[in-house]
Structure formats: C-alpha cells, structure tokens
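Two records follow; treat each independently.
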Amino acid sequence: MIEFDGRGVPKSVLVVTPHPDDSELGCGGTIAKWISQGTEVTYLLCTNGDKGSSDPSITSDELKRIRGQEIDEASKVLGIKNLVQLGYGDGELEDTSEFRERVVKNIRIFKPDVVMVTDPVRHKFYVHRDHRIAGQVVLDSLFPYARDRLHYIEHEAEGLTPHKVKTIMFWGSEEPDSYVDISAHLDTKIKALLKHKSQLSDNESENQMDDLIEAVALRAGAKCGTKYAECFRTIQFTV
C-alpha cells in the first residue's frame, strides 16, 4: 500500500486523463477514496474524445459535446471540484513544448503532491497513442520542467512559481508496484464510469461493465490482500 502523510492520503492530486473516462477506469476508486478523506483532486482532461465512436450517424462536434457532458457528470459523482479541459482533438496529442507548457502551468497552479496519468511504457499489449504521449509528456513536465524556474519563465509574470511533485502514479501499467484498497469505493467508481454512456459499445451492457470492473479490481485486490484494489507503477522524485 502507498503511504503519503502517515494516513496514506495526499493533500492534493492532479489527474491527467488523455480522454474522457480513462481516469475513472484507471483510478476512479482511488480518487473517490482520497476525496472522501479530504484530498483535493483536479482533473486535467487532454482531449475532447471527439473521434472514438463507430456510430455512422454521429459527428465529431456532437461527440465532443456528449463526452464533455459525460466527464462533467462523472466528476460530480466522484466529488471533483476542479475540471480543466485542454481541448485537443482525440488522437491529436503530440510531444510538443506547447502541450508540455500547458501541463507545467497546471502543475504550478494546483501544486499537487501526487500526479496520476496513463503509463506510457507498454510491451505486451497495444495502447492508444494519446495514452503514450500523455504519460511521457506528464513525466517530462514533472522532471525537470515544473521544478526549474527557468523553464517557461513567463509563468512568473502570472505569479506562478516552480513546484516539485513528490510522486507520480501510472495506471494501466504492466508492472505495478503499488496498490490502493478501494473496497469501500468500488460502487462509486462504477457509478462514475457509467456516466460515460457513449463509451459503451452496442454489444456491451451496463451490467457487463459492472462485472468487468469488479473482476479487474478483484485481481488487483488478490495481489495486496484486500477485496478490491487499483494498481499503479509509482515513481518518487528525490531530486
């Protein structure tokens, strides 16, 4: 299990999610647990999810509107007060100075103890390109960009100072090393996920989604001695 302040609870967390629903799927139970214990959680949504549909009748603009509503509703279920949307198109994330600057700026604004994002390193299974780009850009943003004042020095004119994040937690990792017990919060995770109705395929029911999420949480829980858990690859920043 992860320890932060002796209670296993960070004061402030920034969750960087490539698409609407990624964060609920990867760390929704942990978010719900920590918010219930007083953690302030901010969502940084990178893309608007305007491409991921097989419906021949829907347009990107309509999908963008729907996905925006869904993540707003899911955030309310979890108790998230700060939702920042960067507005990139689905599939359009790039490892650029501009994207990195926007991530660094939000790190300096919200000053999180912990940042959570998708693991960019996968060898055994395919992963959406936006997930890889988001994970790598966020890691670079934390070390060294957000830490060193001369990176994006223009932030000082806005009253923003460098910030050193203590921990990054990657969800979706093939090699997790940290676990969070979400036994009391699995229902909240599922309720938040089910707000993303447009993400369900024609052959997928809400009950099937419930069963899938429970099965994944059971497997993680079995590895750490709890009923339900979420797992992460964690890096502690020491310099």
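The next record belongs to a different protein.
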Amino acid sequence: MLGLAPAAHGGNRTGRVFTGDRSGDWLFSSLYRTGFANQPTSVTADDGLELKDLFVAAAVRCAPPANKPLPSERDNCLPYAAAEIRLLRPRVIVCLGSFAWDAAARLLQIRPKPRFGHAVEYTADTITLLGSYHPSQQNTFTGKLTEPMMDAVFIRARELAE
C-alpha cells in the first residue's frame, strides 16, 4: 500500500505511517475488517499492531506543508519507494489518493499515466495498481469515502494478489 506521506501529527509524531491520526484510524479499521491487521487501531509504533500480507509505504518520507510536497521532495523520496518495491516485489499496490497513484505510475514508468479513480485498476507487467480515495477527514467526513468502499478495495487487493 502506498500513501502520500507521514502526517505531521500522526506518522511523523509516532514513527509509523498512518499511526496516531484519524486517517490511520479509518485505514487500520478497514485493514482489520478485511483481514490484513490483527487489531482495528494503531496509536503508537509499539502498540502491538501486526500487518499480514501488507506493507505500508509512503511516496514522500517527511510531512510536507499542507500535504502538498514540492516536486523536488517527491523526486528526492521516490528512490526509497522504488527500493521497497524492488525488495518486496508486490503483486498489488493499493494507492491511497491521486498523489500515491501518480507516484506509483512514476515508479513503474507507466506512460501515459492512467487516470486515477476509486477502485480503478491498472496492470503493468506483474503489478496491479488499485486506486482508493485517501482516508483523510475531507473524504471520510463528507462521505466521498465510506467504510464499505474502502473495505471493497482491500478485498479486491487480496483477490488480485492470490
């Protein structure tokens, strides 16, 4: 799974992406319901959370101001995500938001870049990108992203990976 970056008051503070913020609350709850996590919450890096068949990565390694990384920040961090993909050799990358989708397309050198959307799939060689709206408050509070929508993405990810 690929996200944007550690949140200033979440992953940047706790040392684990999506841990200790509302986006993480939403995400880990879905991962628990779909069998990827052993518990529905994560508040600290040592709270016992264990992920199964899933790795959480970030396209950018630091908390960018206003969640809008500069192109230089994006480009400086991309080699780290590329190394993770080379090492892990995933079959599926769930991209949380359009920024992660764009980063994954860059990593896999997909041209032209496929259009992002929730539950959109794009297969390049042996890796399938699977889009999901980001579990940010602006998406979850407005109903743009619902629990069933997020769960469906992770259920589909499991199907694609098998």
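Discussion point: The beta strands are 2-3, 57-58, 92-96, 121-124, 127-132. How would you locate this feature using only the token line?
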